[in-house]
Amino acid sequence: MADAHRPDKDKEQDAVRHPAELVAFSKVKAGDTVIDVWPGKGYWSRLFSPVVGAKGKVYAYVPAEIVDMKSDPMGIAKAFAAEPGYGNIEAISDPLAQQPPPDMQNKFDVVWTFENYHDLHDSFMKGASVDGFNQAVFKLLKPGGYYIIVDHAAAKGQGLKNTEDLHRIEEATVKAEVEKAGFVLDEESKLLASTTDDHTLKVFDPAVKGKTDRFMLRFRKPAK
């Protein structure tokens, strides 16, 4: 967090994102190879970069299904990867559910996605398979590697019903989808949970923005 290269716009989000606790929860360490899925403006990629250090690598992964968005997510990723002090960040893009070739399997230590897993189910993803994506993540990770998902909680029983309108997903649904790919739940945290969020508002609504009920899940690829 004290990295001198971090922009002020990132530091301004620290109070609601709890970066020290979340980076610790991710288990990212020196020398690791990390994939930051749907990296946005680079907040987490910039944090992981000094943690993994010169011997590590951070891949800012932009799903190919969204590269044509007006916001130009790939252009943004390439821009923050080129910032001074972040030479170990590389922006990459592939189709969401593309299965990795043999030489890329069992190579990564951590796959991370923050408040974007629900978007993988949305119609603008052009029918990409979330099951296929989770299977690809399983193949990419080393045995014992971690898959971390932080997202906005939907009400119990809502499943995938609110991924597009409210940008929320039910925690139990995420667990079932990821475990289906072969992962085991390693740890969950209530650090970002909120009892004042009744799950009925869009996450961008000023009444709940930055204060939504969010779940933190860390899955592990079995060592054997």
Describe this protein with a few key phrases.
single chain; 224 residues; alpha/beta; Rossmann fold; seven-stranded mixed β-sheet; 7 strands; SAM-dependent_MTases_sf; Methyltransferase
What does this structure look like?
The protein has 224 residues and is of the alpha/beta class. It has a single domain (8-220), classed as Vaccinia Virus protein VP39 (Rossmann fold, 3-Layer(aba) Sandwich). The chain is built from 7 helices and 7 strands; from the N terminus they run H-H-H-E-H-E-H-E-E-H-E-H-E-E. It has a 7-stranded mixed β-sheet. Strand 2 (57-63), helix 5 and strand 3 form a beta-alpha-beta unit. The longest helix is centred in the middle third of the chain and has 11 residues, at 130-140. It is globular and about 45 Å long. The N and C termini lie far apart (35 Å). The model has no long low-confidence stretch (mean pLDDT 95).
The H-and-E topology, N to C, reads as HHHEHEHEEHEHEE
Name the average pLDDT: 95
Shape verdict: globular
Rounded to an integer, what's the Rg over CA atoms? 16 Å
* Distance from first to last alpha carbon: 35 Å
CATH-defined architecture: 3-Layer(aba) Sandwich
Structurally, the number of domains stands at 1
- Low-confidence segments, given as residue ranges, are none
CATH class: Alpha Beta
Q: Fraction of residues in helices?
A: 25-40%
CATH topology (level 3) name: Rossmann fold
Strand content: 15-25%
What is the number of helical segments per DSSP (H or I, 4+ residues)?
7
Number of strands: 7
The largest sheet has its strands arranged as: 3-2-1-4-5-7-6
CATH superfamily: Vaccinia Virus protein VP39
What structural category do the secondary elements indicate? alpha/beta
Describe the largest sheet.
7 strands, mixed
Protein name: Methyltransferase
Organism: Luteibacter yeojuensis
InterPro entries: S-AdoMet-dep_MeTrfase_Alr7345, SAM-dependent_MTases_sf
